[in-house]
Every structure is written in structure tokens, then in C-alpha cells.
Specification:
514 residues; alpha/beta; TIM Barrel; Rossmann fold; 3 domains; four-stranded parallel β-sheet; 15 strands; 41% helix
């Protein structure tokens, strides 16, 4: 009986331990990042002392290696290391993000050579080691990765060579795969699946674009024809262009060609759908995985949507990007300040637009360069002031500022303040009863828009306002406003014009420019 009693006690203890262990496993699996801009303070390095000192809540985690640069044994080992790293940061309460490039890299003989397609690194991987990663990227495609590259009408392709500030470019180059090529997309789905498996909370995908003057591959032609069939009725196309035989279409190559606006809109749609597919795959392995593009906005979101297919309104829609990562600022020219003539320089209109396009999802702003060599020999006082004014401008417009290389004492003080007041920021949204309609469609149609200019005028007059995008006209958000300023009318669809009519019928005021 005593033995039975001891056995029973041991059984209870072991069962209890099993419950605790199972509960612990369940707890680890249920980590869920707080996706709210008021909680997000992004540290530019993962050093724990730095993160704690600056009250950061997000940092950069450890991700999966690229298939083409490792053996399978190396890949598996690095995956386990990444999982352990990310788990340890989650245990400390940090959200971890990871950079992911969509480029295809290669090397030429000299830094001045024009890259050739057969010089991309993925070609050697395709020829010798693809089979080692078929569980991630599927069977070897019938055509090699040189056919993935975005091409101009003559078959040539654009490329980029990176060099850190003050250094010479090297033999390394980057080019880009076509988001309409199913084999390239399948490889990228494998890449982001591996990222998700490491336990990171999300990736910002660099090179969120289709390079200008591309892509004219057969897959793009096929998908553009399908896009026209879905979005441009034949009778409308006949009336607009005198042509509706989409199967025999000549793809437009420059402004003024038939189907030009449909073409540049389709390119943005292709990038957005590419991101949606990556997000869908990643969430099969990490249900809370977040994705963002790395959308450069240093010379405006209109040009980026027009020439590079980075349509921020498409990417910000529900089911696409979960946050926005934008390289909006470059050098000191865009730092908020007064210039030598006394004119105030501000990024606020652009930040308001990003917040509107993202529908209040987190927006990360990266970053005014306040360090050498762009700003030679800055004093600590100057660095602190520059950081504080950038952080303040970002926070005032519902965005998150990320320093590039340094976090001076002034920034540390500001982050401490934000941390102490986080309970007021989480859940907070920009609000005003005055809204300005901003839309990239105006730019895509080669028409002027005065949304940013109107925002600046209202700000200079001390009139509080926010921006809204065209999608908001068909949602309940339109009811937030007493007055909506419309910088244009002709490009609005009939459905959206009727929505504005109902807004007026309910007592709203429309102010139309032009």
C-alpha cells in the first residue's frame, strides 16, 4: 500500500509537471506582438543594454540565411541559432523584426563592368544545390533564374551597386526578380517561410518596387492582359483607346502610350499582390507574422508609385502590409527646421499621408542622416537636438522615428518620456474634423494634386487637419469629418463622388480646389 501511495504521489507530481511543461510550451507558442504605434520604439541595434537604456520595445532579430549562400547543414544550424535568439528576446518582451531583400545579387569582374544575367549568384545554386532546399522552394523550375530578372523591352536589365558613404563601389551588384514570374515568387515564398519559422515577428522587404522601364517579360504580359480583362471593360476600352483586343495588345513603354495609366497602376498592383502572397505563406508558419515594404519616399510617394510601382495606398490596404517602413528622409535637406530664408521645412504632410494610407497601422520613418560623413564633426548637443526634433515630428503625426546610426542623449530622454506615457499613446489616433483627400491616382494620371500644399497652408494657419485616402470615402471614416477639402474631382469614380454627395446631404461641407 505504501508503495502504491508513493507511486500515486509520484504520478501526480509527474502529471503536474507535464501540465506545467505543456502550459509553458503553449505560452511560448502564444507570443503575440502588440501591433500599435504607441508601443513601438525601434532600437537601431539589438544590444540589450542599449535597448533597456533607451526604453525600446522593438529591435532586429535573427533571421534565416539565404539559400544560395549556405549548405543545408549550415542552413539548419543557423535556423536553430536564430530561433533561440528570437525566443530569448521575446522572453524579455521585445518585438523582433528582420530585413529581407527581394533582390538577386551577383558579381562582375570589375566595378565598372556592365552586369550580365549569368553573373547572378542564384544561377550557381540552381545548377548545383537547388535539390537541397526543395522542401522550401519546390522542384527545380524548367528555366534557370536568369529568366526571373525584370527586363526592359530590349531584354536588358537595370542594376544597382551599393557603396557605404565615402567608399568606392565594388564588383557586387543587385538586380531584381519579376513579381509576376511564378518561379521567382515561389523562391521568395520559401525565403519568407524560413524567416517566419525562426520566430521573428515580421520582415520589412527591401526593394519594394518594379524597376523603372521594366518589366516586359512574358509573365508580365500575360498578367497585364488578365488585369485589363478584370478592371477595364471592353466597351470602356473601345471608347477610351479605340481598342479592346487585349490578347494582341502592344505593351505601353512611355507616357502618352495607350493603356499607360493602366500599365503603371498594374505595376503597383503586382507589387502589392506579391506582398500579399508572401504574407499569406508566412502566416501559415507564424500566424502573427507581419510584413512591410521598404518604400523609399525621399523624393515623393507619387514618383515612387509612378516609376517604381511602390503604391503605398495599395500596400497599406487591409490584408497587405501590416506596417509601413519608409526611407522617407535623406540627409539634412528634409530635417524639420527653418532654412536660411526663414522658410519652415517639414515632413508633416508626407507623414500624414503615410498614416492615412496605412489606416493607422504602425509607420516607421527611416531616417535623417545626422552622423558623419553627411554631417561632419557634429557636437553631442547638435545630435541631440536633431534627434529630438525628428522624433517629435514623427510622433506628432502618428509615426515612429528610427535613427540610422546613433542615439544621442537627447533621443534617450525623449524615448524615456514616450515610455512613461505609453498608456496614453497606445490606441491613440490622429483626429480632426477637417480632412484633406490625398490620392496617388492623381499623380498616376499625370495630373496635379494640391493635397500636400493644402496641408502646408492649413498648418501654417494653425488649422488642425488630417488626410484621408480614396478608400476612406467608401468607409465609415468619412463620417469623422465636418469639412473635407478635395484637391481634384475628375479622377474620382462615380461611386466615390456619390459617397461625397451623401456626405454633403448629411450636413458635411466640401471645399473643392481647381
Amino acid at each position: 500500500m505504501e508503495q502504491l501511495k508513493n507511486f500515486s504521489i509520484k504520478s501526480i507530481i509527474l502529471a503536474t509537471m507535464g501540465i506545467i511543461l505543456i502550459s509553458g510550451i503553449g505560452y511560448a507558442q502564444e507570443w503575440k506582438p502588440l501591433v500599435d504605434w504607441g508601443h513601438w520604439r525601434l532600437g537601431q541595434k539589438s544590444d540589450l543594454d542599449f535597448l533597456k537604456k533607451n526604453n525600446m520595445t522593438i529591435t532586429f532579430g535573427s533571421g534565416a540565411p539565404n539559400f544560395e549562400y549556405v549548405t543545408r547543414a549550415e542552413f539548419d544550424a543557423e535556423m536553430e541559432e536564430a530561433k533561440a535568439f528570437n525566443r530569448s528576446y521575446h522572453d524579455k518582451g521585445y518585438i523582433v523584426l528582420r530585413y529581407l531583400s527581394s533582390s538577386l545579387n551577383g558579381k562582375t569582374e570589375t566595378p565598372t563592368d556592365i552586369p550580365q544575367k549569368d553573373q547572378i549568384d542564384f544561377l550557381e545554386f540552381y545548377q548545383s544545390r537547388w535539390e537541397n532546399f526543395e522542401d522550401y522552394i519546390g522542384p527545380k523550375p524548367p528555366k534557370d533564374p536568369t529568366t526571373w530578372i525584370t527586363v526592359r523591352p530590349d531584354g536588358t536589365f537595370p542594376y544597382y551597386r551599393y557603396a557605404p558613404y565615402g567608399r568606392e563601389k565594388t564588383e557586387r551588384f543587385e538586380t531584381w526578380g519579376c513579381p509576376n514570374n511564378p518561379y521567382y515568387v515561389r523562391m521568395m515564398e520559401g525565403r519568407i517561410r524560413a524567416q517566419a519559422e525562426t520566430g521573428i515577428d515580421g520582415s520589412y522587404v527591401d526593394w519594394t518596387h518594379i524597376a523603372g522601364e521594366t518589366c516586359y517579360c512574358d509573365y508580365t504580359r500575360r498578367d497585364f492582359i488578365d488585369y485589363l480583362k478584370e478592371t477595364l471593360p471592353a466597351d470602356v476600352s473601345e471608347e477610351k483607346y479605340g481598342f479592346s483586343d487585349y490578347l494582341n495588345i502592344t505593351l505601353p513603354t512611355e507616357r502618352g502610350d495607350d493603356f499607360w495609366m493602366e500599365w503603371i497602376t498594374f505595376r503597383g498592383y503586382s507589387v502589392a499582390e506579391f506582398h500579399r502572397r508572401l504574407r499569406t505563406v508566412a502566416r501559415q508558419y507564424n500566424p502573427h507574422f507581419m510584413i512591410s515594404g521598404n518604400v523609399y519616399g525621399g523624393f515623393g510617394y507619387g514618383p515612387i508609385a509612378y516609376d517604381a510601382a511602390g503604391n503605398i495606398e495599395m500596400l497599406g490596404a487591409e490584408g497587405y502590409d501590416d506596417f509601413i517602413y519608409s526611407e522617407i528622409q535623406e540627409f539634412l535637406d528634409s530635417a524639420p527646421r527653418k532654412d536660411s530664408t526663414g522658410t519652415k521645412i517639414t515632413n508633416s504632410p508626407a507623414l500624414k499621408f503615410l498614416t492615412a494610407a496605412a489606416h493607422n497601422k504602425p509607420v516607421i520613418i527611416y531616417a535623417t542622416e545626422i552622423t558623419p560623413p553627411i554631417f561632419p564633426n557634429p557636437s553631442e548637443q547638435v545630435l541631440s537636438a536633431m534627434a529630438q526634433i525628428n522624433i517629435a515630428e514623427a510622433e506628432a503625426n502618428h509615426t515612429i522615428f528610427r535613427e540610422k546610426r546613433q542615439t544621442p542623449p537627447g533621443a534617450t530622454m525623449f524615448y524615456k518620456f514616450l515610455s512613461a506615457n505609453e498608456n496614453y499613446l497606445v490606441g491613440a489616433k490622429l483626429y480632426s474634423n477637417v480632412g484633406i483627400l490625398a490620392s496617388l491616382n492623381q499623380y498616376l494620371a499625370d495630373e496635379l494634386s494640391f493635397a500636400f500644399s493644402a496641408s502646408r497652408v492649413l498648418a501654417d494657419e494653425g488649422i488642425s487637419h488630417v488626410m484621408l485616402v480614396e478608400d476612406d470615402l467608401l468607409s465609415g471614416k468619412i463620417n469623422d469629418f465636418d469639412l473635407i477639402l478635395i484637391p481634384y474631382i475628375p479622377l474620382l469614380s462615380e461611386k466615390k463622388q456619390l459617397a461625397l454627395g451623401r456626405f454633403v446631404e448629411r450636413g458635411g461641407i466640401l471645399l473643392v480646389l481647381g
